[in-house]
């Protein structure tokens, strides 16, 4: 499986990858001019040691590339992991790259995420962020309808502006932003992906990005099973 659907129109697609658990091992063993040809129990112990002791540079030689299609509210949370990609003390760049489609150049029909009536969540009781329990269905139905109407109004004004000759980079101002799907390529090291997953699989992470994190985990887990388990064991074992 290389593509997993998420949030109605959204998806995560595994585009490419470089390396394996053996890549991590050999990146570490090169210090002693050694190389393993097959992953052994001794190599697994080395991966455990590297993770436990914080020797993370070997994990940055294993790379994975994804295509993601997600609402803008998810994309902007995700983007923080690229802006702050040197997020480990003393380890430098963690090899993240991000390239996103732009409505300065394309005018494809916009797609939007609309929560179903039973998916609207209440505000949390004891926090300034996040969400609480699902609200009653009738209220959710009201806001699903209002969001659809609001979005359709924005789309009609966007299309009218284009028809009148307004450039795409300004006409897009009429599009309601946070629910609009955007598409990007994310290339990152296994270390960086594990960092993302550890935070976005937590119970208090926004549900929508949790859904995408679960898809990323399902796609990357078979590629680097030992490294991923050691870098984020308390999450992977759940």
From TrEMBL:
Coiled coil: none annotated. It is an enzyme of class 2 (transferase). InterPro entries: Thymidylate_synthase_ThyX, Thymidylate_synthase_ThyX_sf. Its EC number is 2.1.1.148. One of its GO terms (biological process) is methylation. It holds the Pfam family Thy1. Keywords: Methyltransferase, Transferase. One of its GO terms (molecular function) is thymidylate synthase (FAD) activity. It comes from the Bacteria. SUPFAM superfamilies: Thymidylate synthase-complementing protein Thy1. NCBIfam families: thyX. This is FAD-dependent thymidylate synthase. It comes from Paenibacillus eucommiae.
């Amino acid at each position: 499986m290389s593509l997993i659907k998420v949030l109605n129109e959204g998806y995560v697609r595994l585009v490419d990858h470089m390396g394996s658990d053996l890549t991590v091992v050999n990146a570490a063993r090169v210090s002693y001019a050694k190389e393993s040809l097959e992953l052994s129990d001794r190599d697994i112990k080395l991966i455990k040691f590297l993770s436990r002791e914080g020797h993370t540079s070997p994990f940055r030689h294993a790379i994975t590339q994804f295509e993601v299609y997600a609402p803008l509210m998810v994309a902007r949370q995700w983007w923080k992991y690229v802006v702050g990609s040197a997020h480990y003390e003393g380890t430098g760049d963690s090899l993240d790259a991000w390239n996103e489609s732009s409505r300065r150049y394309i005018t494809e029909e916009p797609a939007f995420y609309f929560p179903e009536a039973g998916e609207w969540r209440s505000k949390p009781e004891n926090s300034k962020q996040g969400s609480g329990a699902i609200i009653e269905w009738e209220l959710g139905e009201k806001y699903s309808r209002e969001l659809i109407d609001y979005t359709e109004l924005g789309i009609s004004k966007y299309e009218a502006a284009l028809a009148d000759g307004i450039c795409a980079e300004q006409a897009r101002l009429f599009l309601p932003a946070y629910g609009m799907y955007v598409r990007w390529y994310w290339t990152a090291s296994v270390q960086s992906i594990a960092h993302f997953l550890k935070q976005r699989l937590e119970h208090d992470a926004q549900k929508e990005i949790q859904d995408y994190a679960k898809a990323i985990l399902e796609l990357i887990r078979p590629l680097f099973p030992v490294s991923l388990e050691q870098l984020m064991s308390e999450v992977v074992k759940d």
